[in-house]
Design a protein that fits this description.
The complex is a heterotrimer of chains A (about 110), B (about 600) and C (about 475). With about 600 residues, chain B is an all-alpha fold. Chain B is built from 27 helices and 2 strands. Classes of the chains: A mainly alpha (about 110), B mainly alpha (about 600), C mainly alpha (about 475).
């Protein structure tokens, strides 16, 4: 029987993987996937907290689960906008690599 | 109209005029002059109306800044007898000078700018008059300085005018620095800057007379600067570079008197610090005598009047120092405002007739060319020199009487200065209006338009008669010294001084072609300006080896260069953190997260 | 009387109406959309003065609060949006040049409509008291900003700025939700009011979890308000984004971020064990932000980028006020500062737009000789720069003065010292603009700078307000919640 700690561990791993992706990968699309992974790590731990920390009446606190749905929706919106920007960038510059985005600096 | 709203209208209508002139004045010269005159006339009318009101409603005050109970600064109005009288003087004379200016400035550049400046000045001056606390007074005090700077520098393309404006500004800063320190001292002792609060805090001061003396003398430094008392008097003669209406209004009738008005405002405090009053009296007495000496050897018609102004302000300051109430000094302020303003306006009229020639030895014989101007000048001259039964006779003699009683030396010095006064003003009169025309311009001089003559004629009336007891008793409650206590010799001496001074001037200058007397000491203003000049140049130059070394290596390098280069270098280096790469930013971001977590989670 | 939620609802409806109007070609000129949006937002602004008692179900369930503070900031946001739209109308030619379109003018309508949705998000954000609501509102704002920053699709710098903002913004969102998660895990609540109630009851063993969550939320909000070291996006994005969007980001987004930060941190300032750590974190953030923002601004040559660094520096002063929040007046000082910051920042950007159009760029050198080309604009810019630097008799002076005063009362002498030193360096870099305008010669062929009527009216009003509040700040203090 997995406990809360197990879920939190997996969630922490997901979050770290996502962050590592953002920090280490060079392709903006992959970086973007890393970011989505970070959001999903939060989703997982939210649901876990909600299921394991029951209210006095024995029901889970549904606030967190509602928040999960909001996060999923927002993530979808973010992806829609984000991909559009990345496509526009690709059209203009024929690249999706972060190293090529360094004209604005200092 | 209530006595609550009228002061606010008086105060803000010149500001409104200044803003309107600034915004729409460029379309029409008449419009801008009209706006300025309208605002001044409104103020004048309301001031007289207010003066006639015996019952005054409690004044409103707006909270301006609230730094908690220890310092709450309001914008509020003081409406007592003192400020009512001062309002009358300021608004009435302003109205007349504004009207005069339409004639004087008719062919000048920057006509609208000039009227905007005058209106701004009037606003600032009224702010000083109506202020109910030191901070508000100080702000308007500075605003007056700024508008004076603007107006002196009106002909800014002329170097001497620009320099004079700067000098006036800088010299005034010295005085204002002391003024500010004095305000801070009073505030830290009483916790209030409101005049009413300060007055009620007086009993608490009895334990600390030295502290209060120092504070009062520092506050008096503001007067020394603004009212051109020695040794900070040098700016006033140079400020004559400004247009004559400015000299007349700011540098004779109103602005320079603000210092005296401020002393009158805090007179109840001064009463409990006799030491401070003694210092004030000495500064006033010495100024009044020395400035009169300097005036005897000047050749510029406006500069003579400028030194005369310094001398007369000295009388007022002396009056604050020796008279039992502030009314005596205010009485002289009142009469002086009338006759000195009149003299300046007459001098301006002469100057216009002479095409801006100011050296009186190039004039002469103007009595036939400009008769009305001469009549006005005579009225002002008689009052200034203390001719019996003119306004100056009453106000000046009263101060001298008190001075003789309190500090005899200063009293007799001031009485002697009265003789000098008669001498220098009659000297100017004879040289300008009598004798032969000494230049081309003087031969073709002609009288000025009505817009200039009417204000002068109006002013001539109070200059001659305002001192008569039946008139002045409406404005002042004067206290005369006991007739037996005053030395019997004093009045004969004063008469002798007047007739002697005038007679000597007539003798020497009635038909003089050039100055028969030459006293370089006086002509060079007791060398005070030169001392300053020498001080600034030579002392600085003498120690220049040390100073320039210090300047170069200590000030410039250590204090200026190193920090500025260092900050620039730091900024330049920090910029490189901003490397432009998203992943570098994400790394820094992550580092920030780790740092923050460390702070939050460490024990 | 209007139900408070109706304000946000009507802004969203306005946005949808404008989208439809644009889609069906109701507006012949694209700028008509902007005028409609301005009219609609002005109507909502008037509506904020007729708020009925708080009776709606959102309020009851603790999602949404209507107090003096949120009402003040709703008006703040509405004014900002209106000014952004005024600026956008001026900016339209540049948008039309840099947006690919099949026929002239196409693709520029949304430039006026997106700010309306952002406005709704910001208005919701300042009322949100539940993490769910804060998250949703924040994301509505952020996502609409992604589009606006990257709006100029033919401009490489706009696209680059958009991508940077997208990646780093999403990163901060990731931290935000993960932080919220841990809040929820430790307290069992998502609601700030409820969290305040249960906070003293939480066992000490759970405190690290709360602090962990708090740190991550602080990171995410630090990103919004441009606190060092989460500020790196600011100069790049400010420089690349369309100027009205930059102004919007600089003012409204930052102000709403500060308000949310105040709301989130408030419960923790009541519990001593949290208070100390939070205090330390805020002081350090403030110090770093002050130093970095002011020093890195010194060598800048691009005006928009300079304003980016200046915006970081201002965040430093605001954080200083936040660190002094224990003082009774600190909250008011922060709000006063933000209001003054709105005036002077919008003034600077409103002047920048016509100058950019007339001289072809937004470097400081493009301001050369502005005093001779357009003395009025130069004077207004002088006022804006003086106020940004904190010269007396401008609103910026009193903003800094009140913050320093609050910090002094709280004994934050080190911060005040840093503040005063950095103010001095601030004088230096704002002076560069003034020097360019008044001492550098204008280019040979340069005439007066053309400017629309509305912009000049807005510039005049803002400049006057800066001066009036600089002389009589009580006017604004009286309005503070």
């Amino acid at each position: 029987m997995p406990t809360l700690a197990h879920y939190l561990l997996v969630s922490g791993l997901l979050f770290s993987l996502g962050l590592a992706g953002v920090l280490l990968r060079r392709n903006i699309l992959i970086i973007f996937m890393g970011l989505e992974l970070m959001l999903n790590a939060a989703n997982l731990s939210l649901v876990a907290f909600s299921r394991f920390n029951l209210l006095p009446n024995g029901l889970p606190n549904y606030n967190a689960q509602v928040l999960v749905f909001f996060i999923i929706t927002v993530a979808a919106a973010e992806v829609a906008v984000g991909l559009a920007i990345i496509v526009a960038l690709f059209r203009a510059k024929q690249t999706t690599h972060v190293e090529d985005l360094n004209t604005l600096k200092f | 109209m209530s006595t609550q709203t009228a002061p606010w209208i008086i105060l803000f209508s010149p500001l409104a005029a200044a803003v309107l002139i600034f915004l729409i004045g460029r379309f029409s010269k008449t419009l801008s002059a009209g706006l300025a005159i309208l605002s001044a006339a409104t103020g004048c009318f309301l001031s007289w109306w207010l003066f006639r009101q015996t019952e005054v409603a409690p004044q409103l005050s707006l909270e301006w800044l609230n730094f908690g109970p220890e310092l709450t600064i309001t914008i509020g109005i003081t409406l007592d007898h003192l400020s009512k009288v001062m309002l009358l003087v300021v608004t009435t004379i302003s109205t007349l000078v504004f009207i005069y200016s339409t004639g004087y400035m008719r062919d000048e550049e920057g006509y609208t700018r000039f009227f905007a400046g005058l209106s701004l000045f009037l606003f600032s001056m009224l702010g000083i008059v109506l202020a109910d606390n030191f901070v508000m007074m100080f702000i308007f005090w500075e605003l007056v300085g700024v508008s004076s700077y603007i107006l002196i520098g009106h002909y800014y393309s002329k170097d001497s005018a620009a320099d004079a404006g700067k000098q006036a500004f800088i010299v005034n800063r010295i005085g204002d620095f002391g003024f500010m320190l004095g305000i801070l001292l009073l505030w830290s002792a009483t916790g209030t800057v409101a005049f009413s609060g300060l007055l009620s805090a007086i009993p608490g001061f009895e334990g600390a007379p030295v502290y209060l003396t120092v504070a009062c003398v520092l506050v008096f430094m503001g007067t020394v600067g603004k009212s051109a008392q020695m040794p900070l008097h040098v700016w006033l003669p140079n400020s004559m570079e400004g247009p004559t209406p400015v000299s007349s209004l700011l540098h004779a009738a109103t602005m320079v008197a603000a210092g005296v008005y401020m002393l009158a405002r805090i007179f109840p405090i001064l009463e409990v610090v006799p030491d401070a009053r003694e210092i004030i009296a000495w500064v006033g007495g010495i100024t009044c005598f020395c400035a009169a000496l300097m005036a005897t050897q000047q050749n510029d018609i406006k500069r003579i009047l400028a030194y005369s102004t310094i001398s007369q302000l000295g009388y007022m300051v002396l009056g604050i120092g020796v008279a039992p109430t502030s009314s005596e000094a205010m009485f002289h302020l009142f009469t002086h405002a009338c006759f000195k303003c009149l003299l300046f306006l007459a001098a301006g009229s002469v100057m216009i007739a002479m095409h801006h020639e100011t050296d009186m030895w190039h004039m002469g014989g103007l009595r036939k060319k400009t008769p009305v101007t001469m009549i006005c000048f005579i009225a002002g001259m008689l009052a200034l020199s203390g001719c019996p039964f003119t306004s100056g006779y009453f106000s000046k003699d009263l101060i001298i009487e008190w001075a003789v009683l309190k500090i005899p030396f200063l009293g007799w010095l001031a009485a002697a200065a009265a003789g000098l006064t008669a001498f220098y003003i009659f000297r100017e009169f004879f040289v300008v209006f009598f004798g032969k025309a000494r230049s081309e311009h003087a031969e073709h001089a002609h009288e000025q338009p009505v817009s200039m003559l009417v204000p002068m004629l109006i002013l001539a009336v109070p200059a001659l008669f305002a001192g008569l007891p039946m008139i002045q008793e409406h404005f002042f409650t004067l206290s005369h010294p006991d007739a037996h206590a005053v030395p019997h010799l004093l009045h004969p001496f004063l008469y002798a001084m007047f007739f002697g001074g005038a007679g000597l001037a007539a003798l020497l200058y009635f038909k003089a072609e050039k100055d028969p007397v030459s006293i370089p000491l006086f002509a060079n203003r007791l060398y005070i300006d030169d001392v300053y000049f020498w001080f600034v140049n030579k002392i600085q130059g003498g120690g220049s080896i040390v100073l320039s070394w210090a300047d170069r290596w200590v000030v410039d390098l250590v204090i200026v260069q190193v920090p500025s280069k260092l900050t620039w270098a730091c900024g330049f280096a920090l910029r490189f953190l901003q490397i432009g790469s998203i992943q570098a930013y994400a790394f820094f971001f992550g580092a920030g997260v780790v740092g923050l977590l460390y702070i939050m989670l460490s024990k | 009387m209007i139900d408070p939620v109706f304000l946000e609802v009507s802004v969203v409806v306005l946005g949808i109406f404008l989208l439809m109007a644009e889609a069906f070609g109701l507006a012949k000129e694209k700028s008509t959309l902007a005028w409609w949006a301005i009219g609609g937002l002005a109507a909502v602004f008037i509506g904020t003065f007729f708020i009925g008692p708080n009776s709606n179900s959102f309020e009851v369930s603790g999602f949404y609060v209507v107090d003096g503070l949120s009402l003040f900031f709703k008006r703040f946001v509405l004014i900002s949006t209106i000014l952004v739209l005024v600026m956008s109308v001026d900016y339209l030619p540049i948008v039309q040049r840099l947006v690919p379109a099949e026929r002239p003018g196409a693709g520029s309508g949304e430039f006026f409509i997106l700010p309306v949705f952002t406005c709704a998000g910001l208005m919701w954000m300042v009322s949100a008291t539940d993490f769910i609501m804060i998250f949703c509102a924040l994301e509505l704002v952020t996502i609409s900003f992604y589009i606006q920053v990257a709006y100029l699709r033919r401009s490489m710098s706009s696209l680059e700025a958009g991508t940077k903002y997208l990646i780093l913004g999403a990163l901060s969102t990731g931290f935000l939700v993960y932080g919220i998660t841990w809040f929820f895990g430790a307290t069992g609540q998502t609601n700030l009011v409820a969290i305040r109630e249960v906070l003293p009851l939480i066992p000490v063993a759970n405190h690290p979890a709360i602090l962990f969550g708090l740190a991550l939320v602080l990171v995410a909000l630090g990103f919004k308000i441009a606190a060092v070291p989460f500020q790196f996006w600011v100069p790049d994005v400010y420089q690349g984004a369309p100027t009205p969007v930059t102004a919007y980001l600089a003012v409204a987004s930052k102000a709403a971020g500060f308000l949310v930060l105040i709301r989130v941190l408030e419960p923790f300032f009541t519990v001593p064990s949290f208070q100390n750590k939070l205090f330390l974190a805020l002081v350090l953030l403030a110090l770093l932000t002050l130093v970095f923002g002011n020093l890195a601004a010194i060598p800048q040559t691009n005006f928009k980028r300079l304003l980016g660094y200046s915006s970081i520096a201002h965040a430093g002063y605001l954080l200083m006020g936040l660190a002094a929040i224990g003082d009774a007046f600190a909250g008011g000082a922060v709000v006063f500062y933000l209001s003054g910051y709105l005036l002077m920042t919008f003034l600077a950007f409103l002047i920048l737009v016509p100058v950019t159009k007339a001289s072809g760029g937004d470097d400081i050198a493009h301001f050369n000789g502005l005093a001779r080309r357009s003395p009025g604009l130069a004077l207004a810019m002088l006022i804006a720069a003086a106020s940004l630097a904190g010269v007396p008799f401008t609103v910026g002076f009193f903003g800094k003065f009140f913050i320093f005063e609050a910090a002094m009362n709280q004994g934050l002498y080190l911060l005040v010292l840093a503040g005063i030193v950095t103010v001095a360096s601030g004088f230096y870099y704002y002076f560069k603009v003034i020097r360019a305008m008044y001492w550098q010669p204008a280019p040979e062929d340069a005439g007066p700078v053309a400017i629309t009527k509305t912009s000049s009216v807005a510039i005049f009003i803002l400049a006057m307000l800066i001066l009036i509040l600089g002389v009589y700040p009580q006017l604004l203090i009286g309005m503070l919640p």
